[in-house]
Design brief:
heterodimer, A: 435 residues, alpha/beta, 6 helices, B: 363 residues, alpha+beta, 2 domains, 6-stranded antiparallel beta sheet, 3-stranded mixed beta sheet, 15 strands, 22% strand, globular
């Protein structure tokens, strides 16, 4: 019915109508004869129509948008090898869809000419898989997955290709408020906040990825249950961050960081002031901030020039005491560090306070020890004058620990490694049903 | 049945699929060079409305004969199956070319009561929300160059326009027609269910007078009288947002009305922007959750190098003001639906922040 009507009309956007029309036919349960007939009529009507497409790539934009709109659960959207240009953000809202390219260096979605949209691809759906493609040069976040269960990101490269810059988008791979998340074999380069950022989620595995030239390489924030292993974090401002922020629906805990290589994360902090990562000193290897129940083991930590491991509180990074959520616990507790390989690092800490502290304590040619602790301890939790054993920060590695005494303005820093030799109950591994 | 020469519009609902033309719905159209509505299609307006690059908006609702919406005190009215809501975005034209549009106050109601001639305006798009068995569906249409009808435009579009002010200042901008999936960026008000809902037709937005053909009357009164709104208590119990642009109103009421209609569909406890912990809905008290001395979470570039969402007394230190002022895609708020700064509203919000007592002490 619509088909005949369409065919009789002379319209300038004939091509668009054909596409739209084909979409309708699908919805009308495939009236095949009608489809064929009217498509012929329509195509005939389009003869001589001026094709106003600038390049074949940008034509693909509309086709992909239509695929995303028409997607039904179970669909696999294959994107062929090639470089495809987009000038606006993409969005998927259908559960159970896989978007698959031909390889992270073969199928490239380029947003270099993006005009509108706060991200490259925004997904608000469950049972989503994105694999084997690259998302480049988005204005804002490259991939954001907001709310959804069973999210797989595999073999994806997100990159700002002109190198690290404050003007780059904030996040590379950014699942938030998600559950059962796997990010593996992926690469994130150049994000002005975090390359791989998992926020307010549950049950997460981040493994075998590479994060380079981001402010934060990998950041796990307000997330419950995360295993971060087999990754390479290098040339970021901070390598791997385990953070908790106030005023959010859930506080994070239970993160295992192991078998990672965290090497020379010494890039100047190019984040935007005011963001949580803007306070990360350049040269931070693994940084725990206000998070609890974190196990850091069997990592290789090399040449991170502020310190290979930093354990701190949001108190140090400066926030408004008066307005922060009443029940927010800013103290990092139940942290266990063991079995790591340390080499170099601590020689040139970032920031005036830390530089002065290093100079005062270790001299011009000296270095910070491998673990730096800002010294915030919640005395309200003390039993018989000390923290209950289960809440302690335990450094089992035979390395020195500097308590910077931040609560007292860095006035009485001390080496406390020997006092921190203890062990905690190991955390249970994260299990993902689809692994 | 599908002829273009039909002399008048007949409103109808369409239970499935994506009809290719706006005229298929028979709700709003152009006849004899005038924008007209079909019988029983009710135009309405909102006390304060969403800013979309100074576009004027003609809103309508139609319910199948014999049906009525059910009153809800705080949420969107419960509309019957088959309801069709339309919103037509258009601009007053300048004398020069199609691409130039004028920045002027939205007087859709007055124009409609008189003669909304298409010679004086440029129709851009009409968005339809239809209540079907499966829930609300959003279907966008783009007006053709001849301004005779609008065609289905599911993939969205970018329309280059030039905004011209009364004093002749010109500003180029990219008017963004969202694609179908992006409708949920605003209308998917519950991040978990992701179901689409209308946003405007809530009592507090609708409780205002409208300039109808014959008289200026309260919209909800008219709906009750017409029998298309049931279960309404006495009008004294109806909530009411102010028109934020009315200088007679208190700044707090203006700011909350503006932030409500422009932000709270995402920034609420259930909305997709709850990831930020910033809730700008009317139920949230003026405290950290409303942005007071609240740290940003994943604002990225959006912080503008500022530390807190709202610093009382200091608009220049408030992230919220910065994001309303910005037109950079990953900085600005709302994220979708604008490319220009809403200068007058930003000025009002700045005044409001300036008037707030207190400050943020860094611990």
């Amino acid at each position: 019915m619509w088909a005949g009507y369409l065919a009789l009309r002379r319209v300038p956007t004939c091509e668009k109508l054909i596409l739209n029309y084909l979409g309708i036919i699908v919805l009308m349960n495939r009236i095949i004869t009608l489809t064929v007939l009217s498509a012929i009529v329509l195509l005939a009507g389009c003869e001589g129509t001026d094709k106003q497409q600038q390049t074949p790539d940008s034509d693909y934009q509309r086709r992909l948008i239509e695929r995303l709109i028409d997607a039904v659960p179970g669909d696999v959207i294959d994107i062929p090898e090639g470089r495809f240009a987009f000038d606006r953000s993409l969005m998927l809202t259908t559960d159970g869809v896989t978007i698959r390219g031909a390889g992270a260096d073969k199928t490239i979605l380029s947003f270099k000419n993006q005009v509108v949209g706060a991200e490259g691809l925004l997904v608000t759906a469950s049972d989503f898989t994105l694999e084997n493609l690259a998302i480049e040069d988005t204005i804002g976040d490259a991939l954001k997955v907001n709310n959804g269960k069973n999210i797989i990101i595999r073999g994806v490269r997100v990159e700002w290709t002109n190198g690290y810059s404050t003007d780059n988008g904030a996040y590379g791979l950014y699942p938030v408020q998600t559950e059962n998340v796997l990010i593996e074999d992926s690469v994130a380069i150049g994000a002005s906040d975090a390359g791989i950022y998992v926020g307010q989620s549950r049950n997460v595995v981040v493994r075998n990825n590479r994060a380079e030239w981001n402010v934060a390489g990998i950041e796990i924030e307000n997330t419950i249950g995360a295993d971060v292993y087999g990754n390479l974090a290098t040339n970021n401002t901070g390598g791997i961050l385990i953070f908790n922020m106030p005023n959010l629906p859930q506080a994070g805990h239970h993160t295992r960081v192991f078998n990672n290589r965290v090497i020379a994360n010494n890039t100047e902090n190019f984040g935007h002031a005011g963001t949580p990562v803007a306070s990360v000193p350049a040269g931070s290897g693994i940084l725990v901030n206000s998070n609890d129940r974190v196990e850091i083991f069997n990592n290789e930590l090399v040449d991170n020039n502020t310190a290979n491991i930093i354990i701190s509180s949001l108190h140090t990074t400066g926030y408004s005491d008066s307005e922060v959520q009443q029940n927010f616990d800013a103290y990092p507790e139940s942290i266990w560090v063991y079995g790591n390989q340390f080499s170099g690092g601590g020689e040139t800490p970032d920031g005036l306070d830390l530089k002065a502290l290093k100079l005062a304590m270790f001299g011009f040619g000296g270095r910070f020890p491998d673990v730096l602790f800002d010294g915030y301890i919640d005395q309200n939790k003390f039993v018989d004058g000390e923290l209950p054993p289960a809440l302690r920060i335990c450094i089992s590695d035979e390395v020195e620990v500097l308590n910077a005494d931040a609560p007292n303005g860095f006035t009485s820093p001390s080496l406390v490694g020997a006092d921190m030799r203890c062990e905690l109950e190991p955390l249970t591994p994260v299990t993902l049903a689809f692994l | 049945m599908w002829s273009c020469s039909e002399p008048s519009l007949v409103a109808r609902t369409i239970v499935s699929g994506n009809p290719p033309l706006l005229s298929d719905w028979g709700q709003v159209g152009v006849l004899n060079n005038r924008v007209v509505l079909a019988d029983a299609v009710e135009p309405y307006d909102l006390a304060s409305s969403l800013f979309t690059d100074y576009a004027h908006k003609l809103r309508t609702v139609w319910m199948p004969p014999g049906t009525a919406a059910v009153y809800r005190s705080d949420d969107v009215l419960e509309f019957p199956l088959g309801t069709v809501i339309t919103k037509t975005f258009y601009y007053p034209r300048t004398a020069i070319g199609d691409q130039q549009v004028r920045r002027a106050p939205d007087t859709s109601a007055q124009l409609l009561a008189g003669e909304l001639g298409v010679d004086a305006i440029r129709l851009i798009e009409t968005r339809i929300l239809v209540r079907r068995e499966s829930g609300w569906a959003a279907i966008p249409y783009r007006w053709n160059e001849e301004q005779t009808d609008a065609t289905l435009q599911r993939a969205g579009d970018i329309v280059p326009l030039t905004m011209v002010t009364d004093t002749g200042v010109e500003e180029n901008f990219s008017y963004w027609v969202p694609n179908v999936n992006q409708c949920s960026s605003c209308h998917g008000i519950d991040a978990k269910s992701r179901a689409l809902h209308p946003i405007g037709p809530k009592v507090r937005h609708l409780n205002k007078r409208y300039h109808f053909d014959t008289a200026e009357v309260n919209q909800l009164d008219r709906w009750v009288t017409a029998g298309i709104l049931e279960g309404a208590p006495a009008s004294s119990e109806w909530g009411q947002n102010v028109d934020w642009a009315d200088p007679e109103q208190a700044l707090t009421a203006s700011a909350r009305a503006y932030l409500d209609i422009n932000c709270s569909h995402c920034h609420s406890k259930q909305g997709p922007a709850n990831t930020s912990g910033l809730h700008l809905d009317p139920a949230t008290p003026l405290g950290p959750a409303f942005g007071l001395c609240k740290l940003p979470i994943a604002a990225g570039k959006g912080t503008g190098n500022r530390s807190y969402d709202i610093v009382p007394g200091r608009p220049d230190d408030s992230i919220l003001v910065h994001r309303l002022e910005s037109t950079i895609p990953d900085v600005m708020m709302p994220e979708i639906g604008r490319a220009l700064r809403h200068t007058e509203a930003v000025s009002m919000i700045r005044d409001w922040v300036h008037e707030l007592d207190g400050g943020c002490t860094t611990g």
